[in-house]
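I can't quite decide. Please look over this sequence plus structure tokens:

:::
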Amino acid sequence: AVAAIIAPPSSATEQYWRAELAEMTHVARLLGAPAGDAAAEAQWRDEVITLDADATARLVREARRMGVSVNTLLQGAWALALARTSGTLDVSFGLAVAGRAIDVAMVDEIVGVLINNVPVRAKLGGNERAAAWLAALQARQADMRAAEQVSPEALQQWSGLAWGQRLFESLVVFQDDAAESGQRDWFGASLKITKAVTPTATALPLTVLVTGTDTLTVTMRCDVRWVAPDLGAALASQLAAALHALGSVGDSTLAQLLAALPPAPEGILRAVERAPIVFPRDDVERVLARQWATLLGLEVVGVTESFLALGGSSLAATQAIARVRESFQVDVPVRALFESPTVESFARVLVARERKRGQMQRIAQLILRVEDMSADELRASASPHSQNPVPVVPT
């Protein structure tokens, strides 16, 4: 979000998100065992759900009866699908938000749209009435409008989760066709608006795209490196069932709606299996492996393991690059980590940037030497009378 980058968050924004993310000790993981090469480019598989005119009309009528938006119903359906598949009643997902509120700092000087991805926390109390739960979900998001332009760094800090953990692994994008129609009226008949169809890809394992007005289409874009085909199919089945169930909520409880969904196949959310650890083979790899392990809260990181598969987020990637720049004194763009997400491949990126042959290895040796020194040795080395001063990294 542009505004979040320009201006620091207000105390009210922090207060809202701390309350919303309180006691969020874990995120239900969607990732199945990787079906492809973790270091390869994203491979997308689409699961498409199409609601005909009658099913769409039922959703619209039920939303109006409960006093909520269709967007809120879609979010509720996704929360139900996640809860049924993961077996937990406290789920989270990302939501794409856009707006230009007057109270956003420096809003009159910002060019372009303000778009951000923020977490949605959904707690599903079993005996709670579904209509009341959906109304509360919409009310919380109304409050969120004043706090939606916030940086990922701030959200992660306020959540209390470790830096290596994502706040969400799926993103919901509701594309409002009615808003586009309204824009045509604003600009007048003299301006022609032509749609440009572009591929939709995000940095998340799964994106739920909702389009249409009279007939809704839900496209689940799954990166098969992280979301195995059977997991994607199971989630699509759960979501389709949830959407049909929400078309006639009545006086149902959340427990009743969840029970109406098909059970998730056994073992569908199997843990990501870590391959046998391949230990570092030179000093550059040793330094990187140590840094990544510390950043991701792991005991050890193998040189063939993907930073992203181990839980590394875009924020964690930024921190990893900052540590590399500070320790190796080399300028590396963040995208290099996404393009070379293993220790061995990223070490090659560093070596390719060295000014003199062997420079990165010499720097890594000095870093390891300092890290392995005891506190007494460091204090003694820092003394102006020391015979073995702390080494200075050559530039």
Summary: The mean pLDDT is 80. The first strand starts at residue 44 and ends at 50. The radius of gyration is 24 Å.
